[in-house]
Give the backbone structure.
Amino acid sequence: MSEAIKHECGIVLIRLLKPLSFYLEKYGTTTYGLNKLWLMMEKQHNRGQDGAGVATIKLDVPPGNRYISRYRSNSPQPIKDIFEKINSSFYALQDKAPERLRDAEWMKKNVPFVGELLMGHLRYGTFGGNSIEYCHPFLRQNNWKTRNLVLAGNFNLTNVDELFGLLVELGQHPKERTDTVTVMEKIGHFIDEENQKLFDMYHAQGYSNQQISDLIAKHLDVQRVLSRASREWDGGYAMAGLLGHGDAFVLRDPAGIRPAFYYKDDEVVVVASERPAIQTAFNVPLESISPIKPGHALIIKKNGDISEKLVRQPLPRKECSFERIYFSRGSDADIYRERKDLGKYLVPRILKSVNFDFDNTVFSYIPNTAEASFFGLREGLSDHRIAKQKQLLVEEGGKISAEELDKILNIVIRTEKIAIKDAKLRTFITGDSGRDDLVTHVYDSTYGVVRKGVDNLVLIDDSIVRGTTLKQSILRIMDRLRPKKIVIASSAPQIRYPDCYGIDMAKLGDFIAFQAAIALLKERGQADLIQEVYKKSKAQEHLPKEQIVNYVKEIYRPFTADEISAKITQLLTPEGLHAEVDIVYQSIEGLRMSCPNHTGDWYFTGDYPTPGGNKVVNKSFINYVEGKNVRAY
């Protein structure tokens, strides 16, 4: 992707179902769980580089002993920092008492993080700062084991103000108005209520306080806690929690917006945001891994019972299509195939742009996430070439000379590596100060391949958000090669609407597609429509979210997608460029054919999966018209 954007976090949860001595005997180490946790976090490194955190819980620890360990880091290499800290205890033992490393009982009693329940989190912050306080997991502590909560997630709620007010009504005094604190306290409140209910019941039956603690741990209803806590949540989430006594859960939102997969056998239960992380870490086949169903929670009881329970009534499935286009690692079998299909469906648009001129066109891609789409584009071009060759041969019939036959058979698709990414600069989220100078140097090019003034140059990218890098770096760098024409092809459709479920795309004015639509309205004497939409949006600003309509769709309605693409091309073409420029986009139909099972396409269509989405786009448009450069939620 030419523009890096902050997006969805990553989670890992591991529950070892056997005593630590089992893993020592079978795998030769008491740190089996930690080793797997590290590997799975590394394999999801793409999901978070602003910070990371790890927490573990030891089961059946006697009073007076620490049983919850947590460490978080916001260092430049947070995973490395965390595991160097954790492993320091093992290095010290290796030097002083190596025999202890093979004593599972001693290790569990004396060494932090050697436990049966493990959680990892990778953070890409879409809100707030990058201080350690924003890093997951979060910890809600209590002297009663069953009231302790460790929470980490990949989530974003649209109605934090509403939820904050509900907490205040409950008599709480939350320390921050953020979805993380709100979620933690909401779940914590109902954990407390569940504990109190069970305590009162067993106390009335004559049990001692110590007996009651064990009974609460056994009978605490995690499903009921989550159902009550999440009742008013509006957003996308995959939320992992550990309770101090050993229960654990991962809860997924009712529309399935955020991903969560799990695997279980008789040794381990594991959950992750991405399927390949589980496949790689545990060397298991694709078929053995399942998604957590939308609106359900995978609940792992302390005794090892595992169940998938309904928590909220599922909504129509709207799993995030951007996961497939860009966010998730392309090593997932389905995602790799879908990204290739996205490239294939661009073939007609690209060939039309270069006038079907194979001889004088070089095809390439913008590193690195567009590579799979490029492979699909290449396959699609090959299919088109073969069809063209057959057509020419049929047309010529038996009256074809050797020279003509040679010409037909030697139609070549010229694919090259042209764009080279020199530096990892997050241009979408870098502060405006200094951005222009930075992005100029993000890319370089391969010289001597493109014939000056003769060749077209086609570059496929996975998406175009604001176009900053294209205008200030890529197009200028590619123009140095002096192609006749530069075609930028986006494997994603035009990004027209803000996201509010975990991707840092909350401001309408940032999107080049929105800028193009506004420019067209002004050019064609239809600027009054902007004020009309503003008045409609302002009139519903304080309505309940369920009653809000996405009137921003009216901004785009007067224009075809091709008209908006043409205006985007004009807006992003730098002055003084020698080559002609054309920017083409994937169609909505092409997206849906490529990713048929992931229909969450609100960034492209404005069809939000929850009422909170309409509220956010409404507020985002109001902010734009009023000149407020702030998030809409």
Observations:
- The two ends are 26 Å apart (CA to CA).
- Residues 19 and 591 are 47 Å apart (CA to CA).
- Confidence is low (pLDDT under 50) at residues 426-433.
- The first strand starts at residue 10 and ends at 16.
